[in-house]
Amino acid sequence: MEESVISGTAHDASGTRFALFGISSMPTDWAQVFRTLASADLTIDALTGGPPDDTPDHAPDTNDGSGARSSGPPSLSMTPPSVLDLNAYLMYAIGKGARRRLSDRLTAHNLRLWHLTVLAMVADLGPQMKTVLAARLDMNASDLVKIVNDLVKSDHLACDRDPEDRRRVVVRLTPAGRSFLAHLSADITSTDDDILAPLSAEERVTLASLLRRVHRHLEPAPAGVAGPSTGR
């Protein structure tokens, strides 16, 4: 259910000020709620769906993402401030939002993330057997077959018998598929622009480089492929 969020500042008869924050799943008289909870005659200075206009005298610090903390009113974020210092949580939360935006863009083309991944793998590495493709993508073979079949029906991929071994089926990108992938890549690039809107061009280059390094560190080796040697 969609939740109504409210924030602002308040002060009591002595003039003591403090921040307040509330969430409700139904229309709510927030001023009445806080008066009742506090059992005091409170004056609500700012009750809006956005950040309050006035800054409390002792507002908690907020992290702007650069490591520096600045004083200001609490944001409407549903994220506990303490986890904003945990990089693993930030990557999870950002990845979740990015995946949703990318999925929405792909859905407009009747595709899912796996369709894009398979198309890109075949385009980048050339024709390959289904078994090899499934291993490289760490994907269940039966799931891969479904994705490939979808892309064959749309004329983006083709499956041919290997002339050197008729038992093997090789997946290749069709001319139509290559043209479609170029169009799709240009279309979904706007997703990056949306997600990275707060960053400058230079910051985006730096972020991309750092993310690729972390990705290489965390990416598992394909099935059947030995990892780095640990011998002395």
Can you describe what's shown?
Helix 3 crosses helix 5 (141-153). The protein folds into 2 domains: 1-62; 89-218, Winged helix-like DNA-binding domain superfamily/Winged helix DNA-binding domain (Arc Repressor Mutant, subunit A, Orthogonal Bundle). The strands form 3 sheets. A 3-stranded antiparallel sheet has the order 2-1-3, with helices on one face. A 3-stranded antiparallel sheet has the order 6-8-7. A hairpin with a 5-residue loop joins strand 1 and strand 2 (17-24). The N and C termini lie far apart (58 Å). The model is unreliable at 46-62 and 225-232 (pLDDT under 50). Helices cover 44% and strands 18% of the residues. It contains 7 helices and 8 strands; from the N terminus they run ββαβββααβααββαα. The radius of gyration is 26 Å and the shape is elongated. It has 232 residues and is α+β, with helices and mostly antiparallel strands. It holds the Pfam family HTH_27. Residues 45-78 are annotated as: Disordered. Residues 68-78 have a biased composition (Polar residues).
Q: What is the architecture of the largest domain at the second tier of CATH?
A: Orthogonal Bundle
The secondary-structure element order is EEHEEEHHEHHEEHH
- Bulk shape: elongated
| Number of β-strand runs | 8
Report, as a whole number of angstroms, the end-to-end distance: 58 Å
> What is the CA-based Rg, rounded?
26 Å
Could you tell me the mean pLDDT?
75
Number of helices: 7
Outline the biggest β-sheet: 3 strands, antiparallel
Q: What is the assigned CATH homologous superfamily of the largest domain? A: Winged helix-like DNA-binding domain superfamily/Winged helix DNA-binding domain
CATH topology of the largest domain: Arc Repressor Mutant, subunit A
- Tell me what portion of residues adopts beta-strand conformation: 15-25%
Q: What is the topology, as strand order, of the major beta sheet?
A: 2-1-3
Structural class: alpha+beta
User: How much helicity do the residues have?
Assistant: 40-55%
Q: Tell me the name of the CATH class of the largest domain.
A: Mainly Alpha
Low-confidence stretches: 46-62, 225-232
Number of domains: 2
